[in-house]
Amino acid sequence: MEAAHRSADVDPAQVRAQLAECLNSLAEAAGLGPGRVLVVGVSTSEIAGRAIGTATSAELGQAVADVLRAFRERTGCEVAVQCCEHLNRALVVSRAALEAHGWTEVAAVPVPGAGGAAAAAWYFTLPDPCLAESLAADAGIDVGDTLIGMHLKRVAVPFRGARNRVGHAHVTMARTRPPLIGGARAVYDAVEARRRWQGRQE
What we know:
The chain is an alpha+beta fold. The protein is built from seven helices and nine strands, in the order H-H-E-H-H-E-E-H-E-H-E-E-E-E-E-H. The chain has helices at residues 2-8, 12-30, 44-47, 58-75, 95-101, 117-125, 190-201, and strands at 37-42, 78-82, 91-94, 105-106, 129-132, 139-143, 156-159, 165-166, 169-176.
């Protein structure tokens, strides 16, 4: 009864607005668009102010999925929603993305009690959903400390947006970059490299 009361304290419209704000700032920082992949972890229990896994909310899960759908349509970025540990943190993705990226499919259908409300809502939002065993995303957002690091490319770089809460849940975001190689003599900036190259040609 207490869980239902606390969940009712959270306005789904406010959750939509807060999540959209986070996603927009991350998209700009990480350059998210067509061909890129965003991994999303969400605990609706944490959004509602409860401990993870104790007050799953289908209503809040659908609110999250609504924002993710609009984000995917606007940016062209593929969105992968991580399931909970009961489904080994598999990810809900579109079948087109699974086939395009060569991800390994696993068989399950997420539900609020096994997979999570956000993953279940995303599954039933996508026109042709499936589960990927794992992937390496270009950026990630973790709403409620669900732990998404296992699905980020190397090297993950923390991103601090203007907002660090959605509902009551703590938000962590990250972009990624390729590993820097070569040591002290290496050049990482393309403009500087061109300047040096042109200097050698003169």
